[in-house]
Amino acid sequence: MSAPARAPQDRAPVQPRLGAVGTARFVWRQLTSMRTALLLLLLLAVGAVPGSVVPQEDVDPAAVVTFREEHPVLAPWLDRLSFFDVYASPWFSAVYLLLFVSLVGCVLPRSRQQWTAWRSRPPRTPSRLERLPEHRVVTAPTEPSPLVAAGGALRRRRYRVDVRPDAPGAATGSVAAERGHLRETGNLVFHLALVGLLLALAASSLLSYRAQVVVPVGQGFSNTVARYDTFDPGAWVAPDDLPPFAVGLDGLDVEFEEAPGSQLGAPRDFEAQVQVVSPGEETREDVIRVNEPLHAGGAEVYLAGNGYAPVITVTDAQGRVVYSEPTPFLAQDAAYTSTGVVKVLGSLPEQLGFTGAFLPTAVIDERGPRSIFPDARDPLLLLTGYRGDLGAVNDGLPVNVYELDTTSMDQLTTDEGAPWSVALRPGDAVDLPGGLGELRFGYPPGAAAPGGAATAAEGDPLPRFAGLTVRHDPGRVPALVFSVLAMLGLVASLFTARRRVFVRVGPGEGGAARVEVAGLTRGEDAGLAAEVDALARTLGSSAQDQARHPAASDRTTSQPAVPQPAAPQPTASQPAASEPAADAAPDADGSPAGSPTSTSTTTTRS
Amino acid sequence: MGESLAATSNLLVYSAMTVYAVALLAFALDLSGRGRTAAAPARQEALVGAGAGRGSAPVRDDAETGVRRRAAAVGVSTTWLALALHTAAVVTRGVSAGRVPWGNMYEFTLTGAAVVTAVFCVVLLRRDLRYLGVFVVGPVLLTLGIALSVLYTESAQLVPALQSYWLVIHVSVATVSSALFVIAFSLNVLQLVQDRRERLAAAGRPPRRGRFMERLPGSEELERAAYRLIAVSFPLWSFTLVAGAIWAERAWGRYWGWDPKEVWTFVIWVVYAAYLHARATRGWDGRRSAYVAIAGFACILVNWGVVNVFFPGNHSYAGIG
Ligand code: HEM
After folding, report:
1. In whole angstroms, how far apart are CA A358 and each of A204, A252, A267, B201, B243?
2. Which of B239, B267, B292 is the closest to A48 by Cβ?
3. Which of A6, A11, A33, A41 to mutate to test the interface with B (most CBs of B within 10 A)?
4. Quick one: which of A226, A598, B90, B198 has the most CB atoms within 10 Å?
5. pLDDT higher than threshold 80 for residue A6
6. Chain A: residue nearest B242 by CA?
7. Ligand 1 pocket test target in B228, B241, B276, B281 with most atoms within 8 Å of CB
8. Closest by CA position to B152, among listed B2, B7, B262
């Protein structure tokens, strides 16, 4: 990769002329210079780091809240620097937008140059080929024409070839050939694909939506905003026209590590069995696993979490069943110590609310109640209750289903006036204090699940729930396409050697032709010598020593009878071959580098 | 069976470390010059003259100079032996858990170190990079020490998010790429040292300490070697990045989410892209681009040693503790 042959925008800026145009041109040249690109790249790297150290609003909002509480002095300062939202911050955006402006400004002129280069003929044949880094002379018969043979051989080696006879039809003349345009083309494709990738990312963020929903086994959801617990649309998404489909959760299999040790209780396998209903299609059965989302209605459905939804039944003071359904409790730790909320809207005389914990494998000791294993080995439901007005839910306003607004409620107390609390196992039922009714862990006795229990799962007092994430992202396919293009361009650019090879055919001794083969490379190219050797060997049928170069004869005399070492050790007098790791060499074209030429055809090296 | 295999794996790691130590010693001996004997002084002289004419590094090739480097030969064969033991340790570890051997930090480190040695051995088949022996085997040995003492985790199955063929694709390419970066890093550091010595020598104050550096190639050649490794590694790292995004899309429903591990993978990529630019920027010599490459490697270390352990994120599978 030689800088000299490269991009004119690299040139040291000329003194800025006065005037707006001059200044603008100066700024533009600065912005599109390699040095600026380098600086901006380094800035981009540095700028990305804080987002991994400080919790991010977008990634983990809960962690941001905790962080603010723990660092009350620091947090306002970090806020001012947008450190909680680094990747959408003005300064981070400025860096990458400038970088891409620079990139476009740099790549477009180069693309134009490359376009002309593709269509132009290989360069003029230098008059003194012996001055090029690689040079061989061989003798060849005049029939068939060495000029034509050289052209053919070079074309076969995928060179762009220009055959230039001294006079039309003459046997003497030169051939100019060049290859490796792919290097610059690859580089341009790479950089342009990065622009495409940026646009795809923008499309993703504007046009995608992401929703989360908690679904107990035996229930389902439809793709509507109303049904989702959270819904994050991109700026250009109309929430009203989500594609219609529905998913029912038939079952959820969960496995945990049972072997004692540090991994005890670690999750091992999750699988959800679902039914998918889309308009115009037959209902189909499918499964969702952690790395295998479900495709439905142009969206993907991911299994993001799971937990328990104990069935809770509340009978009010008048003996009516006012609440009876699986109620998701969200896991707070690896052993699924979970918390949840029950809101009983229809109870009389007052509304009721309960909060508490569910412990799949309960332990209550000096550290308080908690679960020690994520599977339901000894399930326990701990609840306290409130009576009064549940607040905003009653007005049909959106509220968090996992929070109880107790501002207009009173905590239930025992007859002694202490806060009322209960611990229930599946099937247990207790009376609420003050004759408010009854609370049960399970469906009401005798009654099956609402809608008539058809399966055992629906009568189960402790079904699991699946936390599902629904995502639709029209930018992801373009993003992938541009990434792949970028990688192809990158590989082409890094591993293509740029070479020029010239052949000159002139009159030789005894009616034969004297054929010179010479090559030069731009940048590093460990395979050039071998290529020139091979060409010389192909073209020269009968070898003859001519015009021995002093260096070459030196070596021959210093080790007259010793054959050249076959091992790929670099030899001191061969610059191109003395590079280490030529196999890993990005410029090597696969030809074995550096093995000295076989003695039969080649004679001269300069 | 899993447990006894895991124990076998540990035993193999210890054996590999012992053999590595021998290799390290042999390579060091070679660099000190004590492991070398001159075989054909007359021939050596003629060719030293030719090499010196180009003003490059001191001559180093035994085929050419007639220097027999017995210690280096021992170093190479013991490194191969260590690699065999090390590979066996990796394989038994994988079999003991019934999956690919990179499900947690310990295994990732163990496997990564083996890949570093393997890459070095493969390059040795084609090029004489024996001068690098100390600077590859040394770090590998150190890494294994850290793996056993700090990162060790019992062999176990994977959490569901890791159960994917993307684990095989993404992590194996990341490992090979990191291994290449490790070796390139050694070369870059040596390049800087050599460069300093050359400048001192040019200023008429040849450095007195670190004579062994004279047995290494010149800074320009070290620079080129480092570049070539990075140029191979960079596309692999790009692939790692893209494969990671594809996997994230399948596992978490978004292909890019600025999770700490993603951030650092991206940072590493950008820094090495900056290195490639630095090399092509006029006015930036090999020394300054080497600094950028070393910064890139520092990011790799952070990604491995700090992010996995201290920054919580979706990638928190380190399983330490
Ligand atoms: C998003 C920002 C950029 C990234 C990630 C990036 C990345 C890269 C990479 C990886 C290479 C080496 C591979 C190859 O030769 O194809 C490269 C080369 C190059 N880039 Fe960029 N680049 C960026 C922006 C720019 C800008 C703004 C310029 C213009 C000033 C530029 C000009 C070049 C040139 C001229 C080369 C060729 C260097 C050579 O041949 O050694 N790049 N870039």
Report:
1. 38, 19, 19, 75, 39
2. B267
3. A41
4. B90
5. no
6. A483
7. B276
8. B7
CA distances from A102 to A94, A112, B5, B234, B238 (A): 12, 16, 56, 22, 21
Interface contact flag, A586 B231, Cβ < 8 Å = yes
> SS in 3 state form for chain B?
CHHHHHHHHHHHHHHHHHHHHHHHHHHHHHHHCCCEEECCHHHHHHHHHHHHCCCCCCCCCHHHHCEEEHHHHHHHHHHHHHHHHHHHHHHHHHHHHCCCCCCCHHHHHHHHHHHHHHHHHHHHHHCCCHHHHHHHHHHHHHHHHHHHHCCCCCCCCCCHHHCCHHHHHHHHHHHHHHHHHHHHHHHHHHHHHHHHHHHHHHCCCCCCCCHHHHHCCCHHHHHHHHHHHHHHHHHHHHHHHHHHHHHHHHHHCCCCCCCHHHHHHHHHHHHHHHHHHHHHCCCCCHHHHHHHHHHHHHHHHHHHHHHHHHCCCCCCCCCCC
Q: What is the DSSP letter of A594?
A: S
Mean pLDDT of A193-219: 93
A550-605 per-position pLDDT tens digit: 333 333 333 333 333 333 333 333 333 333 333 333 443 333 333 333 333 333 33
**The tokens of A339 are what?**
């918390």
Express each pLDDT in A420-458 by its tens digit.
Answer: 999 999 989 999 998 889 999 998 886 554 544 444 445
Q: Does B309 touch chain A (CB under 8 A)?
A: no
Chain B residues closer than 8 Å to A197 by CB: none
Q: What is the mean pLDDT of residues B71-96?
A: 93
CA of A587 to the centre of ligand 1 (A): 17
**Residue A179 φ/ψ, nearest 5 degrees:** -145, 165
Residues of B in contact with A573 (CB under 8 A): 50
Q: Is A582 on the interface with B (CB under 8 A)?
A: yes
A-chain residues near B225 (CB < 8 A): 579-581
Q: Which residues contact A395 (CB under 8 A, 6 or more apart)?
A: none
pLDDT tens-digit readout, B195-219: 999 999 998 888 877 778 888 888 9
Tell me which residues have their CB closer than 6 angstroms to ligand 1: A 1, 6-7, 32-34, 37, 41, 99, 102-103, 106, 187, 190-191, 194, 490, 493-494; B 273, 276-277, 280
pLDDT at B52 over 80: no
Q: Give the position, in ligand 1's atom list, of the atom nearest the Cα of A194.
A: 1
Residue A321: strand pairing partners: A315
Contact A311, A457 (CB under 8 A): no
Q: What is the rounded distance in angstroms from the CA atom of residue A527 to the CA atom of residue A525? A: 6
The 8-class DSSP code of residue A92 comes to H
Average pLDDT over residues A511-530: 85
ipTM, two decimals, is: 0.85
Q: Whose CA is nearest to atom 13 of ligand 1?
A: A490
Binning pLDDT at 50, 70 and 90, where does residue A280 land? Answer: confident
Domain spans, chain B: 1-101+130-141, 158-321
Give the strand pairing for A338-344 and A368-371: unpaired
CB B260 within 8 A of CB B268: no
Q: Count chain A–chain B contacts defined by CB atoms under 8 A.
A: 204
Mutate which of A32, A103, A524 for ligand 1? The one with the most ligand atoms within 8 Å of its CB, which is: A103
Centre of ligand 1 from the C-alpha of residue B277, in Å: 6
Cβ contact (<8 Å) for A469 and B238? no
Q: Which of A52, A306, A481 to mutate to test the interface with B (most CBs of B within 10 A)?
A: A52
Q: Residue A269 in contact with residue A292, Cβ under 8 Å?
A: no
